[in-house]
Design a protein that fits this description.
Layout lengths: L1 H7 L5 H5 L4 H19 L2 H11 L3
Amino acid sequence: MGWFAKKIFPELTDREKAEPYWEIAVDFIREIKLEAERLDAFPKEKRIAYLKKNHFK
């Protein structure tokens, strides 16, 4: 999902980002994009530990 968010978020227009009906979706995509970028910066060991702790309980 993070990969997709990083690709799609820059494609959203200002009009789409300002649309009240898109507000929740845009915020969700923005947060996923930021989280994916943060995760990409982790070294492999830290990324694996993060995913085990936060996603695969």
